[in-house]
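Below is our example:

___
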Amino acid sequence: MIPHIHLGFIAIPSYALFALIGMICYVITTITVFEKAEKKPQSVTNKFLIISIFGFAALYAFAFLFNSLFHSIEEKKLVLGGITWLGGVLGGFPATILMIHYFAPPARGKALEYFDLMIPGIIIAHGIGRIGCFFAGCCYGGVTDSVLGVSFPAGSAAALQYPSESGGSLPVIPTQLIEAGFEIVLFLVLIAGYKIFRNHFTEMYAFAYGTFRFAIEFFRGDDRGSTGMILTPSQCMSIVLIILGLLCLFYKKRILFKKLHEKMDFMAEQVKTQGEKLTVKSIRLLRELKKLCDDGIITEEEFFEKKKEILNLSNEHFTHKS
């Protein structure tokens, strides 16, 4: 446990540092997926990065609300504070998909497919964030006598809950690092099998992480609130996440929500038609601009600048084809 990393006179909170590194990895991964793998124009990528900011804000808000809910159930009084990743996922993911639908016109009707492209970045960001949890001393496991056991120093949450004679904690399972390793492996699997799994990233994440998180909960030792039942809050939310993954799969396979799928197909077709009309209009505009340039009414620099704007706009509206 290293709660702060010292650089001279500056003390940087470890968790915040790893969260920042995770976000940087998210941005790099998302740009790579959108522009290298999917050949999207930069304007589309930028729009999705902006949506990501609000998506992560929604994720944090729901993480706070769910954590407060489960601790309030445990304490039998209103308790506010802390976050739970799964709670953020259950609220933040649907909120982000809705934002894509309403605020990214080229993705209208295909918001879930575009959201798939954001999943690898989310996974690697969370995996690196879990390393930050280890350094911060939170999200630890239960007491163990195995070689995996890690003792946290005096003053840590683990030491307060499982004190040893030395003042630190008894050896506990480093569930943070186990989860980080799992997510990094899952990220690598998705990237290695990109062409195979590309259209099912959301469901794969829901099944894989939901199952893993349900299992790892048996080894967790920190306080995560209560549901008032046998299952922990995270196990209950893991079950919900797996169910949502199944619903996404059934939707994509047109087994369920057929009318909704038809409505989304209609919207996607409208976007396609608008894109085709825009392309025809762009060609007409470019011809008119070229004539103005040939007649000396505008300069070549002005022509090429306008040409770039028109082609970028046309590409942005036509990316639905991929």
Q: What stands out?
A: Strands lie at 4-7, 10-13. The longest strand covers residues 4-7.
